[in-house]
Amino acid sequence: MNQQVTTGIVLARVDYGEADRIITFLTPNVGKLRLMAKGVRRVKSKLAGGVELFSVTNLTYVKGRGDIGTLVSARLVTHYGQIVQDINRTMLGYEFIKKLNKATEDEPEADYFHILEQSFAALNDSAVDLELIRLWFTAQLLRLGGYQPNLQTEPDGTRLDAKKQYEFSFDDSAFVARPEAPYDASAIKFLRLVFGGASPSALQKVAGVERLAATTGQLVSLFARQYSRE
Amino acid sequence: MHVVLIEPDRLQAKVVATALERHGHTASHAASAQAAVQAADEQTPDVVILELQLPQHNGVEFLYEFRSYSEWLTIPVVLYTYLPPRELARAATLYKQLGVAKTLHKPETSLAMLCNAVAQAQVVTVP
Amino acid sequence: MQQNGQGARLGSQEQLFLSLTEQLTRPLLQIAQLAELGTADDLETARIHWDMVQLISGASLRLVESYALSLRVQGHVTPLQLEQITVSSLLYDAAQILEPFARQYGVKLELDPGPRMQPVLADRTVLQSAMVSLGQVFVQSQAEHDEPAPVQFSAHRGRYGVVAGLYSSLPRLGTDSLHRARSFKGRVHEPLAQLVSGPAAGVFVAESLLQTLATRLHVARYRNLTGLAATLEPSAQLQLI
Fold first, then answer.
1. What pTM does this model have?
2. Is the domain of A161 the same as that of A115?
């Protein structure tokens, strides 16, 4: 048997036939992987086990002839067990899994795996604000999808000025200077950090992070909605 | 109708079960997500009433697990929970995707309203 | 107190108050529902429902009173009344108070008084209220299991004094779970989800009371059981005799 080894995060589970389940994993090296787990249906302790949600698992599998391989063994590497201790974090975690599953219908790059892993790590850390994590995740999906807003210049190429106030032009995907507009230098710098890939726990240390996340979170959500497939 | 009632407080469950029985339904009680899967396995429910705040594994985990079985895909779930409406509203899309037919905030829901919601719960389509 | 994360602007007392209000929603709802069920078809059922109302109201009143007591003592509105207390007899009294509540939930209470120990210097009402508040949470925790394990009131000699608390065989609490719960009471809906669903306000009210006695709760293991307990210093006064 030609056994392959990888790590994966569970995206979805569906039953198959009388006794089996098909589990979709997101992996860093082979994108989405669908594996058949044989004989695991209706196991009484099914809410726990080797293939848990909010976990990174070491997978050994055998490639199938078609789309679906066969899971030989699964060993838990990291379980982000704190997420399910808080219902709001659980809800956000599931939201991320669903969004990422949808966003990666084609062959996903390794970065998607790392985004999801980092999101789980952030959700697992009770010190990191939920809205910050939501903002961060949305921004990373946008970035990987190639939809990053222009955070350096106005639409005409003028460099952004630390002393000015800005509003966001959705048509131009860029900031435009206007007196008494809602976004100042600190908000734009914060967005640069967010889109620049700083981790949620690093962002949590930024002074005034709650206010910044609240101010920019709505903007990023609206921006994302333009490009969402939903 | 047969209802699986997922409620961690046994006294609360007794009261709700009494109300359901008076409306002509039968009810199995489960205090946790794991027990709920077992209860659904023993007798397939027509409707599930679910409190999201459960010990160890919460109600969202249960929903995700429940919907991973093809024979349970169309069973309507009525959320009957202490979780505040604003927080429920934040995850409205997720709940819709998980086949939640109705969302009820416990402090604002009488037993009559709950039984009504159960009676009206239609088969759902889970995408 | 500035903290990162959810509810960062809530101070510790506000968190406790929010936890308590969430906790009290539950019995109030149950009483409203029992009232809605109204007159039962038979006297026996009606009696059962009224017993439940009495029990639920009693437990809620105890919780409110315990919280109020902790505030009054902390705010120096009521002074502490310190006396020599035999911990095992206090735990016995606490178990007696909780017995009807536990019975209704189908949970067995046990008492392990431990060996003969020095008395501690404490306020009897404060300490007893703390143990009863904690006991209510432990009973509810066990009631959430298909097969509830007994809840044990236990006192034994620890390294630094008399360790008094509540224990059970399920669940096995992690040492950091209480630490996390303290910072998240009132800010998340289930700060101690491994132990019990919901706000677990009884734990924090118990701790608020214990803090007036210059002690606090810790996760404790004793004879294969896990629980929450407080360490109380033996009274030095009797050592002079």
1. 0.84
2. yes
